[in-house]
Predict the 3D structure of the following.
Amino acid sequence: MPRPRLPSADKGDGDPSAFLNIPYDTEFVGLYLAYIAGLAAFGVRPTASLEIPGGERRLDRIFTLIQSCIYSFHDLSRVQLDEHRPLTPRFNMPFELGLTVAWEKLNPGRHRWFVMESKNRRVLKSLSDLAGTDVQIHDGNVKGVLRELANSLVWTGKQPTVPEMQAIYRGLQQQLPAIQSRAGGGSAYGARTFYELRVLARALAREQTLLS
């Protein structure tokens, strides 16, 4: 199958890439680290909209990033109202999923997308157009995310175990404060912090001989 062009920076020696469509909030940091750790164990390079530089309309940049990836993981577990007024639900994740589905339909065989949720059957109510789609239920915890990444990528060549992925996750969790400090503080979702987490996850996977 033809491989989409990978982003030019930090290619990970030609590893396939995956777009992470996730909420950027403090309660989600543990799952964010789990996605990075799990994908690294499979030899997959995570990408996200938070690393996109300025200069273009944001939506165009997100769509370009989706097109550059072979896989994408769309976490729809944040369906509650934002606590800040005005009280509103978050539509970014389902909207970016819609862009991805359209891209894959128009370009068969170039992309595989996966829907992630924390509660079983909730997607049938929150986004009924996905009826008939297999949804990966991660139960809102780190082990669940790692388990569902393994279930999603079961057909790939690399098959790390959940304990192996957990070891990478623990390494990221331990190093996150130092990484944030080097980046000047701020959110765990900063572009520099995300870059360092991705590099560290790949190094930890190599230490476990999960990557060649």
User: Anything to note?
Assistant: The radius of gyration is 16 Å. The longest helix spans residues 162-182. The chain has one domain: 17-207. Strands lie at 17-21, 45-48, 71-75, 112-117, 135-137.
